[in-house]
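Fill in residues.
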């Protein structure tokens, strides 16, 4: 997962020069960036947009970086966090890592080291995310690799986007996934204009899977948060037709 344009990173630092310098380094490497100028904004963006990684300063107005990390971890948000701080004492580094940061880099930093640490965190997080190749929705088995779903005697063909949506929802294991995160991972966009693209694809997917009623059983809308998938993950793919 190195240097892929689909990876979006949150950079939070109240010092404009420092923040723009980090953004410039990341953008030169092909990453896309969202930025925050204080801790409260950083927390809101991390929760709403679910970036692949966050780079946080410790000393920020409104809310410090360590408090942001605590709030994220308290809510079960496991995006990797790299602390980028001028505090270089061992106690500061230990505290940051103990609270829930995944790595700690002090200022001033070398460009190559920043990129190396970002890549390492993204790789580590990618490996730790349990991917599945099959799901069970009631009596329906979904084979994500073959892009089809079915039950004995019935086979339903799925599109690549539909499988990508299911795989992303399954990766979060019952936690809501925002529309912004879906745009980011499935379509590869940082921003899309006002559109019902995600909702339309979810509606079509539900219809295909027989989950299109007023109270969906498997793909559920969580107001203000996105969509959540309730399913059984399978390690072996049984015959579905």
């Amino acid at each position: 997962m190195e240097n892929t344009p689909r990876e979006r990173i949150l950079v939070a630092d109240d010092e404009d020069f420092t923040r723009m310098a980090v953004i410039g380094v990341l953008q030169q490497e092909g990453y896309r960036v969202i930025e925050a100028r204080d801790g409260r904004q950083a927390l809101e963006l991390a929760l709403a947009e679910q970036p692949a990684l966050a780079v946080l300063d410790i000393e920020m107005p409104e809310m410090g970086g360590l408090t942001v990390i605590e709030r994220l971890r308290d809510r079960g948000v496991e995006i990797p966090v790299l602390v980028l701080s001028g505090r270089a004492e061992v106690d500061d580094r230990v505290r940051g890592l103990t609270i829930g940061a995944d790595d700690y880099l002090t200022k001033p930093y070398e460009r190559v080291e920043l990129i190396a640490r970002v890549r390492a965190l993204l790789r580590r997080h990618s490996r730790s995310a349990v991917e599945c190749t099959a799901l069970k929705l009631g009596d329906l088995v979904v084979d994500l690799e073959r892009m089809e779903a079915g039950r004995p005697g019935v086979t339903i063909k799925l599109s690549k986007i539909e499988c990508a949506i299911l795989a992303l929802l399954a990766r979060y294991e019952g936690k809501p996934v925002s529309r912004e995160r879906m745009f980011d991972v499935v379509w590869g966009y940082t921003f899309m204009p006002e559109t019902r693209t995600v909702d339309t694809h979810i509606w079509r997917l539900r219809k295909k899977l027989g989950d299109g009623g007023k109270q969906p059983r498997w793909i559920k809308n969580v107001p203000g948060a996105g969509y959540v998938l309730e399913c059984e993950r399978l390690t072996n793919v049984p015959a579905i037709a």
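The domain at 8-128 is CATH 3.40.50.2300 (Rossmann fold).
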